[in-house]
Each structure stands twice: as C-alpha cells, then as structure tokens.
Amino acid sequence: MIECSHLSAGYHGRPVVEDVTLSFRPGEVTVLLGPNGCGKTTLLKTALGLLDPVSGRVLYDGADLSSLTPTQAARRAAYMPQNRPAPRIDVRRMVLHGRFPYLTFPRQYRAADYAAADAALEAAGAADLAGRMMDTLSGGQRQKVYLAMALAQDAPTILMDEPTTWLDPRHQLEVMATARRLAAEGRAVGLVSHELNLALRTADRVALLSGGRLAALGTPEEVWQTGALSDAFGVPIGRMQAENGWQYYYR
Length: 251
Fold this sequence. Notes:
12 strands
C-alpha cells in the first residue's frame, strides 16, 4: 500500500498541492479528480518517487520511499504516464521493459519475462500489436502498449495518469474494466482521469483536488453528496439513475 502523509508536492521547492493525506489501498480503485492544473499528475509522480516531496512523507507498506532503492520501489509500484515518446522499437520489446526490476546484470530476459510480457499484452488488448513498431502506432494503440508495460511489471500497486487518453469509447471502457479487474485481484489501483462519468462509475474512492488542496475524499456517493464536484469544476454536475447505475453529466 502507498500512503501519502501530509504531502506537499511541486517543483523547485514551490508546492502545487499541499498537505494531502491519502492512500492507495489494495483491492480498491482510487481516482484522482480535479480541474486542469490542480496537481493530480504532480501528486502521482511524487507518490512514485519521480519528484521529491516539498514536505510530508510517502510510505510503501510502512517504509519511507526515500529509504528504498529504485529497484525496490519499482517492484512495489508500476506507472503508466499520460505521454511518453515513441521509440523505434517493437511492441513486445517495449513491454519487456516492464520486467527490468526483476533482471540482474547483464540484463537477459528469461522465459518467465517473455511469458509475463505476452500475458500483459493480452490483458491490455494489445496482443495483435506485438510485432509492430512503436513509432507506427496511433495514440490509442500506444496507450494500450504502455498499459501492457505497466502490467508486465507485476507490482502490487499500479498508478495510471489519464489512461483513457486517445482511446475510443469501447477501449475506454475496457481500460476501466481492467482497473476493476486488477483491484479484484487484490492490487491497489490509482488513476488520474478527466472522464468524470467513467471515473465515478469505476472508483471505489475518489480524491478530489481543487485549489492545491484535497477538497474531498470518499466513495463516489460521499463525494457527490458534498457538492464539492460542482465547486471544483466550476460547472453544475448532475446525475441520473440509469439501468446500469448512476450516470453523471455537466449541466
């Protein structure tokens, strides 16, 4: 489990978000919501050790992240960024990068690594892309490959930044279904999303950021009842009961 304790995060010692306390818990999907520029990605990167905290602590299973080696941290948390350059490399080789935390020097892939990569490609719906070159793929296809690379890392926590970017509606639903499946397997899943309806229907817990602070934290129902969603986004947000649950919309 990753815990952020009174965490302030930002750049060059200047916080973008301040005094945030939340955790990414096993068996749950935690969604970070909030308007552009509110610090969702900054918080995620700090929880992963990609940025140093301005203040506060990040704990991995009770151990301070600063006390862990990069390999130890990578075995506990995988990351799918929103954007990543597309190198001239084939898809299967790209996904195999997710196995780096388990390799010793010199880096030589084992049969188990290839099997993990192939299983991850299948789980991400990208098995048909395995022989393609990364720089020939569409944005949506690349997103599926980067998801596969994160899954191949086989970490108990997976954090994803806008994983549905570039994806059509069917594949957006598939990614959210994958998040739910991972949580059902006992993993902790955290994701940043601007797809409000999808996020609220997928999340076990919602962390709403606004004005550099944690404006609300709880189940989608609890956060909805506070009215903080409309305040944070600056537009009225409504919902209606549909056959398969609540549907959220901008009014």
